[in-house]
Amino acid sequence: MISSSNRLVQRLLSAISVCLLAACQQAQTIKAFTEADYRLEGIENVKINGLSLEERAGTGRRLSNQERDDLLAAVATNNLTLDATMLLHVSLREPTGDQTLTITNMKWLILVEGQEALTGNMDQAMVLHDGLNRIPVQSPVQLTEVDGRPNYEGLSRVVNLVSSNGDIRQALTFQIKPTVKTPVGNIESPKFISVSKPRE
């Protein structure tokens, strides 16, 4: 006959085994998504401070001088917001079919010709899976900093790029830094992950 104390020990050991197995599986999932390839397929329904960029692009109307000044002032005072839907394709190197990763927060960074320009933080939960992910984006847009000061040179690069009539995709680099939900708490990626450009 098994004593109640032995039964308690067995239950405790079983619970610990289940927890360790879950932690192991979570660690493998995190590793798989860390090593995955990320490709930005596109961005839809882009609005900056309520101004629809797609609508402007569709009609061929460029920003007026007043609108540009308003946007520049909003960036300089950290009052610029971005609303969009990001189409992010995730390619796991060894997909198992049902792996998902819950992200509680994602920092992002835009570089222009290799130089940091704009940054932001998506403070919302999202679940990534292998394949195409449609991610709603609501994020403040801020200037990056150089030696603790706002990087106005980066902002100038962005404005000049947007004002040009050429294809801006080749000059931009998009990076993400996710915070992942784990059984032991939220863990932030140690570095930014580069997201490749859309296929031509």
Structure description:
The chain is globular. The protein has one domain (4-195). Strands 1, 2, 3, 4, 5, 6, 7, 10, 11 and 12 form a ten-stranded antiparallel β-sheet that branches. Strands 8-9 form a two-stranded antiparallel sheet. The termini are far apart. 31% of the residues lie in helices and 43% in strands. The protein has 200 residues and is of the alpha+beta class.
Please write out the topology:
Blueprint: H1 4-34, E1 37-48, E2 51-52, H2 53-59, H3 65-76, E3 80-91, E4 100-112, E5 115-122, E6 126-129, E7 131-143, E8 145-146, E9 149-150, H4 152-163, E10 172-182, E11 185-188, E12 193-195
Antiparallel strand pairs: 1-2, 1-3, 3-7, 4-5, 4-6, 4-10, 5-7, 8-9, 10-11, 10-12
Signal peptide: 1-22
Protein name: DUF4292 domain-containing protein
Keywords: Signal
Query: Share of helix among residues?
Result: 25-40%
Q: Provide the β-strand percentage band.
A: 35-45%
The count of DSSP E runs of length 2 or more, i.e. the number of strands, is 12
The shape is globular
H/E series, N to C? HEEHHEEEEEEEHEEE
Work out the radius of gyration.
Answer: 22 Å
The chain-level structural class is: alpha+beta
| Mean of residue pLDDT values | 77
- Low-confidence spans: pLDDT under 50, at least 5 residues? 12-23
Calculate the terminal CA-CA distance, rounded to whole Å: 71 Å
Total tally of structural domains: 1
Largest sheet: 10 strands, antiparallel
Number of helices: 4
